[in-house]
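Field reference: sequence -> structure
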Amino acid sequence: SIRQTAEMLVRGRVPSREKQQKYYDTILQQSERLSHLIDNILDFSKIEEGQKVFRFENTDIIPLVSDIVGSFQEHTADKGFQISLDISEPIPHVSFDREAMEQVVHNLMDNACKYSGDSRTIELRLFLKGNKVILSVRDYGIGIRKEDHEKIFSRFYRAGEELTQSVKGSGIGLTIVKQIVDAHHGDISVES
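Structure field:
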């Protein structure tokens, strides 16, 4: 996609400024997607080999989640997505590795968008339950069979092949999410 749109621009085959801007936007979006995929693969290798070093700091998680949601809202608006974020105040500071937690939120949101089916509604909630900070990402898409709930965190596993074969992905996004959450002494679960 990046190469094709770049070739069209370089060869002067995109006549209008409006169409050129659309192609530039496509190149930017696809290069960000590629960067994220590369980051996933590199982190997956580091975590698998026990080489990943987490830099924990006690800080506010709200700006991190808000920034990622804002970015997804901007990048998916043209596809009709309605992404909301509900934050139950107050949320105490928590100890986390910022880069790793960005990857967790990004991967969860990316999955919600990819598997949303015909629905374009994604809801995030950040709230306190007892002494735990909970991040919930909810979509209204195709769902996951009960027997696949635990398997979706296994590497290269893609639930319900008949439903997901048209969705692009490496099959390691949720594995990385689980590994990072485990390293943070957290819990992850799925409901469908």
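Note: The chain has a mean pLDDT of 82.
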